[in-house]
Amino acid sequence: MKPFSTRCGSLLGAPLLLSLPLAAPLSAQCFDERGAWTDVAGVATISESFGDFQSDISFEAGPVPIRMGAIQAVNGLNVRNFVDVPPFQSVEHDGTPHAACYVNDDTNTQIQLTFRQPVKAFGCDISGGLGQEGVELLILDSNQTAPIAICAIASDSLAQFVGYASDDSFRGARLRSMSLVPGLVGETFGLDDLAVVTEAQCFDQRPQWAAAAGATNTTPGGTESFAGFNADTPFSGAPVALNIGSIQSFQGQLFENLIDVPPFQTMDNNGTNYASCYVNHAEDGVPQTRIEIRFDRPVRAFGAEITHGLGLEGVQLTFFKGNAVVIECPISSDDAGQFLGVVSPDPMERVVFTAMSLIPGSGGEGFGLDNLVALECAPIGGPSPTPCPTTPNSTGLPGEARACGSTSIGHNDVTLLAGQLPVDQFGYFLASRNGGIFMPPGSAGFICLGPNIGRYQDSVGQGPCFSTRIDVNAIPVNPVQAVIPGERWRFQAWYRDGQTSNFTDVVVIQFTP
Fold first, then answer.
1. pLDDT beyond 80 at 216
2. pTM of the predicted model, to two decimals?
């Protein structure tokens, strides 16, 4: 099976070994202290302090995206559930942005948290306003309907942490009134400093990262030492092409963001070509500077050396799939000469570098970036036995569909990838057991799937490439079906292309037990 072109590709598949191992067997535990939760669960992968919100946002009418997924109020009274941004404070919460929440047992008003990927642990601060009923944290099953665990918060537990950790992953949680006390109107509280632990992991040593990532499985052009550059090249204002994708800096002070070629060295980096980088927080009228690397293909592993020049603030690396955070990795100010690597079961499409914390007057962070590696996974599946005609899109190339992971139903590890797509055009995957050939009205391409077609409309992606991790126990045909060993399923991506739409080719996977 051929790999994707340089515009998009398949992913790296290797067993994940954690550089930050869990301190003890999880089993299933509730916690009322963040330190004890961290000791068992490990370092948080993604956090949400609501600090990125600039205005009050209601989460009553529908889900509101947050860093780890979404928050939504369900049922009952629609009067108090919103992300609260100072100076107004619905529930006093030390003057910081937070989720102002209301739950009620009589009307069944609850707060739903939906995680964008399976997590092993979740924790949050619940503070201010708790009355006599108290609050329960419900951990939900894979269908996000039935509770698999309940952690109670008593009514006298103002400024209370609540956390849960388990050997088994979960996808959602709810907060509800703990008990019905007649005559009370429910519970009002502030929700802040949410944290989850996922299977994605940060590494600070290249050998451990390589062992976890399977770093021998590099893709053609999957490394970038910047040795191919023969002159200093700024990457402010427009993206600069790399072997693994592109690099670009945005806003703020742009003068130091360039690919630096000897003999001139903005910051000494062993006399080699490298990216000379600068990031800062918005301060004293200077907007924030950030640096973004956009990968040509979704990757499950990325590593780089970040060397020299780090000041007091440090650097934060945030990895994204679409606009959703996959994992956050900080590099402190004393980590000059530091390797940083990430391995994730959920594909990553870009990484953003920002200053880690604001120290007034420090001016930001300058550093060298070198020896980047982006890794893919081994492909599974193959083309349709009946060839599917493809039509080139506005890129001049036909869209491609691929898959990676494992054909084993027991592993439940399949990621679908679409590549060679128009930039910033959305699309999603389709699935069917059956084949066919049909050009829908208004489309420039052919759908090569037969009757009873499932649509992954909850996993919309964006070109030039996107990926979708599927659940083999819940293929979204009508009705939803689980894959049976020996079955052959077909997958194809539909995508927009300007005023029309088009389809990729088909990838076929025959599943094993």
1. no
2. 0.71
